[in-house]
Every structure is written in C-alpha cells, then in structure tokens.
Prior knowledge:
The complex is a heterodimer. Chain A is mainly β. Chain A has one domain: Immunoglobulin-like, CATH 2.60.40.640. Chain A contains no helices and 9 strands. In chain A, a hairpin with a 3-residue loop joins strand 7 and strand 8. In chain B, the strands form 3 sheets. In chain B, strands 4, 5, 6, 8, 9 and 10 form a 6-stranded antiparallel beta sheet that branches. In chain B, strands 1-3-7 form a 3-stranded antiparallel beta sheet, with no helix packed on it. The chains are: A mainly beta, B mainly beta.
Amino acid sequence: MISLQLQDNILEVGETLTGQFRWTGTATPKAINLRVCWRTEGRGTVDTEAIYTNAFVGTTSFTFSCKLPPIGPISYDGQILRVIWEVRAAADFPGLFRRKEEQEVKVFRVVPRGA
Amino acid sequence: MTTYIKNTKKFQGAGKLLLSQSPLKLGDHCQAQFCRSLASGNSLEQTAQLKARLLCAEIVTYRVGTDDTTVRQIVFEQPLETQSVPTGTQTIEYTATLKIPSNATPSFEAKHNRILWQVEVKVEFDPVILQQKNTNKDPWVEDGTLSTFAFSVDPEVV
Lengths: 115, 158
C-alpha cells in the first residue's frame, strides 16, 4: 500500500508544498504516479487543474515538493461551489485492475497570503 | 409609466466604472467612480435615484441534456450609498467607497465555475411609477437601467 504524508496541511498561496510517499506492498509497481491538483465540487461541471505531476520509476519512497500558484485558487467551501486541493499518489501496475489500497489521497487547505 | 420607459432608452451603453486601485486584495478599500451618459442631446426628464451594491457571487455552469445552464448564487452583498440625480442631468456620475472584507473569498475563474466580484449600479426613476409597473419584481433585474461591472480580488489579506 501507499502511505502519503504532507509536512503541512494548511498553506498560503505561493508557498511550497512538501510531502513524502512510501510504497510498502509486496510487488514492486512499475511507477508511482503523483499528482497535486485542485478540483471543484458542487452544482457546476467539475473543473480541475494539476500543478504538479510526476511518475516515479524504480523508487518506492520519495520526498517531493512543489510551489503552489501565487494567484490561487484558495480552498473554498461555498454554497454551490467548493474548491478542493489534494495530493494523489497511485501505484501503477500495468495490466491489472487497481485495488483501492493502491491509491492514496491527502486533502490540504490553501489560504490567502497573510490570512 | 411612459416616462420610465422613455428614459431607459436614452442611455448610451452601460457606462464606466473606474476603481482607484486594481486589483484589490482582501481587506482593501478603494474609491469607485461611476459615469454613464445619456444619448447625445438627451437629459433626464425626472429625478432619479442611483442605487449601487457590491456583490460577490458563485457562478457555476452545468449541462442539462444539450443545454448549458448557469446559476448565480450571491454569497456577499453590501448596499452602497444611494444618490439623487436631478432633472436635466446629461451624464450621471457617482462615487462610492468599496470595502472588501478581509474574511471574504478572492476571485476565482475556471471554465465552469467562478467566484466573481461585481458592482451593480441601478438608475431608478419615480418610485410611484416603479411600484405600478414592477410589483413584486426584483429591483436589481436587468432592464436597461442596470450597469454591472466585474473586478478582481487577489488571494492576499492586507
């Protein structure tokens, strides 16, 4: 299974997100795909944008970091719209159906600068 | 009623809104100057009230069948100062102070989802005529006397 840990769960726009993933399964995955993105939830059609993606090949543990956009968006929980930031790590086993434990998602909050 | 309809047709476009500062940040305040001219040679034939409000709204679009539907949900609303516009005015001018709360949300723009900050300015004519014509009607509905301006609020608290 994949364990995913973030150094901070609340960050300001423009700050650097740092985290670490570790694969502890018996089989070695072809790659660990990492994606840092925001997505919308709510009444509208989903919008999403990845600010960092990487496929880690030949490693089962890695510390990653990426800079959050200075213009946001910030995390938001509104009336008909939500904006959610998350990190998703997924083990890639080609040719097999993925089991639930092969993916880990961590949600973090992005707040305005100076908040 | 006749005078009201005649007046709405006299405007030349939606007008302009100038902000003393842009983009704004959370907790910022600035001066907003509104200017809207009547068509050449025209002037107001009756006294009008200029009403304005500062808005923040979630605007989302979703698909139903083959049609896109857009919904606006106002999450912040602040009435601005009302001003009287005298008979004979050819260019309506209005100044107000905008204050963005520090705990509000900044602007957001994606393909189907937006958080939009706006100033709406409405020219309202004789209230008696409006009451007769628009009973139970939203006073901020678009009818040619409403001007809407969007501006950006950055994700930073001053």
